[in-house]
Amino acid sequence: MSSVVELQNVSFSYNGRPVLHDINLAVYTGDFMGLIGPNGTGKSTLIRLAVGLLTPHHGEVRLLGKAITRFRDWHRIGYMAQKAAAFNTSFPATVQEIVETHLRAQVRSAGHLDSTTIRKKVKHALELTGMEEFRTSLIGELSGGQQQRVILARVLVSEPEIMFLDEPLAGIDYPSQQLFCSLLQHLNRELRITILMVTHDPTVIAGYINRLACLEQGTLFTHDGQEEIRGELARTMDSHHHLVYHQHQLP
Ligand SMILES: Nc1ncnc2c1ncn2[C@@H]1O[C@H](COP(=O)(O)OP(=O)(O)OP(=O)(O)O)[C@@H](O)[C@H]1O
Ligand SMILES: [Mg+2]
């Protein structure tokens, strides 16, 4: 199996305060991997290191088999930041414009695309996320769940092979979370897009992911396969399905 994302002995500190210590992670082609961990443990930091927004102080990040320092194919990587959909309700852009502007920005760095192709790609991304009918709506007028879909369409429009999603389920209700997860599962299975997704609610993703990574006190643990994932999640939930306690044996 080939790994599409690799962190090798990665350590990172903010202003001398260590956040991640000697992290090793391999995400393989076709994985739908969840990343969980308490607030402030460094999940977003890990994702930002993986997409090159931060540089590790020690260790190496590799994307699609290349050291990130030499990686140039950024259109193959999709990234949805935490709270990406927190739009002001008066934000003056339509759904179509949000997605199209992103593609045009990508195209400027990756070469030329004519207007017809751009329109087709935008339409396709909106169809994939079920947002075609809202293309002329202002983004700020949509519900939180619908906005998340538009942001996902914006990530999808450049046809990435890997998507890094930082808490895309935050602030949306349970049925919308389920819908969003089944959409991601479809993209993962049918379009073979590899996904690494940060979430706070592992019960929602339990049936969808094939691998789980848990970040705790700067250390990462991974669990493979449905049985192990369910066992791990059951261990950390109370009877109301809240994450109450999640602790591995730290070395
Ligand atoms: N730009 C920054 N400068 C300094 N410290 C930061 C910065 N960003 C994050 N931190 C700190 O690094 C630690 C990890 O932050 P990070 O945002 O990666 O955590 P997280 O696991 O994503 O948390 P959450 O679940 O709340 O999103 C936190 O203690 C945070 O305060
Ligand atoms: Mg975060």
Describe the secondary-structure layout.
Blueprint: E1 3-14, E2 17-28, E3 32-36, H1 43-50, E4 58-63, E5 66-67, E6 77-80, H2 95-110, H3 115-128, H4 144-156, E7 162-166, H5 174-190, E8 194-198, H6 202-205, E9 211-216, E10 219-224, H7 226-236
Parallel strand pairs: 3-8, 3-9, 6-7, 7-8
Antiparallel strand pairs: 1-2, 1-4, 4-5, 9-10
Helix pairs in contact: 2-3, 2-4, 3-4
The structure holds adenosine-5'-triphosphate and magnesium ion (MG).
Residues 14, 19, 37, 39-45, 82 line the site of adenosine-5'-triphosphate (ATP).
How would you describe this structure to a colleague?
- The chain has 251 residues and is an alpha/beta fold.
- It has seven helices and ten strands.
- It has helices at 43-50, 95-110, 115-128, 144-156, 174-190, 202-205, 226-236, and strands spanning 3-14, 17-28, 32-36, 58-63, 66-67, 77-80, 162-166, 194-198, 211-216, 219-224.
- Strands 6-7-8-3-9-10 form a six-stranded mixed sheet, with helices on both faces.
- Strand 4 (58-63) and strand 5 (66-67) form a beta hairpin.
- The protein starts with a strand and ends in a 15-residue tail after the last helix.
- The structure holds adenosine-5'-triphosphate and magnesium ion.
